[in-house]
Design a protein that fits this description.
This protein has helices at 24-37, 51-63, 77-87, 103-110, 114-129, 147-160, 176-189, 209-218, 240-249, 266-277, 298-306, 334-343, 350-366, 372-384, 428-440, 484-499, and strands at 2-3, 5-8, 41-45, 68-74, 93-100, 135-140, 164-169, 197-202, 223-226, 257-258, 326-328, 370-371, 391-401, 404-414, 417-424, 445-453, 462-470, 473-481. The radius of gyration is 25 Å and the shape is globular. The chain is an alpha/beta fold and 501 residues long. The structure holds 3-methyl-2-oxobutanoic acid and zinc ion. The site of 3-methyl-2-oxobutanoic acid (KIV) has 9 residues, from strand 6 and strand 7.
Length: 501
């Protein structure tokens, strides 16, 4: 079997998506999940871009064992130095160097001619090789680069020591057949190509990121760069789960090819990334959307009951998705709970398990039936607030109705002190947010607010995800409760705690 190397760039290109920014702890959490998912390479960030990015790459390099840990770098010595420094603790580091090669980029962005670009690319790769043997080079905007020049760059960087050459469709302009031909040409024309792995990195501006990646695989690419849920710059990057499941489902077409992805961890990882970035997954999103394995029409349901393969090409449970199975109730004990947590694929410490079990019991008092998605939500929430947050909710009261101006009183705890204030607002949620602002002495601007029911039924758990801006700093927050105002207040505090650390 030929292995397709899965290079995950959720933490670098994915995190470049407007509004997706993650803090260091969240990045580590995603990196851990990616390692459980079985990715081969984690592109952990762009170390020169900020101190925060440098520290996150460094922490991931120190903590995550297993996958190759990669840092991005322009073709500049100071970038390469920063990447090498951040990656120092990694067991298997990779420096990913890039430089644009298309006419448009060379003329308008870099203002350099072909000869100079070629020289800079070779110099950068040779310099990076002084720090580690695993070097990847990307000719940025490769799909719009003159074919002769692209082939020459690829040959030169391999000669300089690059072990992976990544062909990016930077602006998502390529079309599958055309992109496949580029890969085939490189594979057949570049004399030293057998000394490097051909990789591809496809953006989704025309909705073709996955199709282009798969076409490249058919034509000889053996590494794909992708992100969880397809998040990334503009319309995003090729989605990992779609590529992996295409290869797995269409074994007839991708004969002899496999990935190392642990399929049953796909859904869980998708939820985690969605939760932490605040980017909801569309219900109809392939593989990880809430409706991806649900059959609504009577004809389909009838068919599936008679024979699953009539309307199902993938079983939801294969990617860790269960269709609302009733799992536990009020009388379930800690043992049953802990077993279920394990079956859902969560790795909790004893302390985390205790917290999660307490939340489960609280929820079970309010809600008769606890579904698997309820369970996932409370576990995910507990995993994130295990360290006592700076601001904690003690209580809130709201007075709201058809002919009443909404008013709220909120009580918060900071360390051992409890503080209280009241406010009116445009609605009960706004009144609570304003009361919190008064207590903390901030002026929060809400950039996004979404409310979703986690499961069905009137007593469903409501989950709020929002994005908050306070004095130029932006953070996403999540909160869940059977009371949607409480869910909103928790989400607001979650965001504040990230900002006010
Ligand atoms: O899209 C792109 O070209 C990139 C490169 C840095 C690989 O993200
Ligand atoms: Zn990109």
């Amino acid at each position: 079997m030929d292995k397709i190397i899965i290079f995950d760039t959720t933490l670098r290109d994915g995190e470049q998506a407007p509004g997706a920014s993650l803090n260091q702890k969240e990045k580590l959490e995603v990196a851990q999940a990616l390692s459980y998912l079985g990715v081969d390479v984690i592109e952990a960030g762009f170390p020169i871009s900020s101190k925060g990015d440098f520290d996150s790459v460094n922490l991931i390099a120190k903590t995550i064992k297993g996958p190759v840990i990669c840092g991005l770098s322009r073709s500049l010595k100071k970038d390469i130095d920063a990447a090498a420094q951040a990656l120092k603790p990694a067991k298997r580091p990779r420096i990913h160097v890039f430089l644009a090669t298309s006419k448009i980029h060379m003329k308008y962005k870099l203002k350099k001619a072909e000869g100079e670009i070629l020289r800079l690319a070779v110099e950068a790769v040779s310099y990076a090789r002084k720090f580690c043997s695993d070097i990847e080079f990307s000719p940025e905007d490769a799909s719009r680069t003159e074919s002769d020049f692209l082939d020459r760059v690829v040959e030169a960087v391999i000669k300089a020591g690059a072990r992976t050459v990544n062909i990016p469709d930077t602006v998502g302009y390529a079309e599958p057949e055309e992109f496949g031909k580029i890969i085939r040409r490189i594979k057949e024309n570049v004399p030293n190509i057998n000394q490097a792995v051909i990789s591809v990195h496809c953006h989704n501006d025309l909705g073709l990121g996955v199709a282009n990646s798969l076409s490249a695989i058919k034509n000889g690419a053996r590494q794909v760069e992708c992100t969880i849920n397809g998040i990334g710059e503009r319309a995003g990057n090729a989605s990992m789960e779609e590529i992996v499941m295409s290869i797995d489902t269409r074994k007839d077409i991708y004969a002899g090819l496999k990935t190392g992805i642990v399929k049953k961890n796909i859904y869980k990882t998708s939820r985690l990334v969605s939760k932490l970035t605040g980017f909801l997954v569309a219900p109809n999103k392939a593989i990880v959307g809430g409706n991806a394995f649900r059959h609504e029409s009577g004809i389909h349901q009838d068919g599936v009951l008679k024979e699953r393969s009539t309307y199902e090409i993938i079983h939801g449970e294969d990617v860790g998705f269960q269709v609302e199975g009733l799992v536990l109730g009020k009388h379930s004990g800690r043992h049953a709970f802990s077993e279920r947590v394990k079956r859902l694929g969560f790795h909790l410490s004893e302390k985390q398990l205790n917290y999660a079990f307490e939340s489960f019991k609280e929820l079970a008092d309010k809600k008769k039936d606890i579904f698997e998605d309820d369970l996932r939500t409370i576990i995910e929430d507990q995993m994130r607030v295990i360290k006592a947050p700076l601001w904690q909710l003690l209580s809130f009261e709201v007075n709201s109705g058809t002919n009443i101006a909404p008013k709220s009183t909120v009580r918060l705890k900071k360390k051992e002190t409890s503080l209280q204030d009241s406010s009116s607002g445009d609605g009960p949620v706004d009144a609570c947010f304003k009361a919190i602002d008064k207590i903390i002495g901030i002026k929060g601007a809400l950039e996004d607010f979404r409310l979703e029911a986690v499961t069905r039924g009137k007593d469903a758990l409501g989950e709020v995800s929002l994005r908050l801006k306070v004095e130029g700093k932006v953070a996403s927050g999540r909160g869940s409760s059977t009371d949607i105002i409480e869910a909103a207040v928790k989400a607001y505090l979650d965001a504040i705690n990230k900002i006010e650390k």
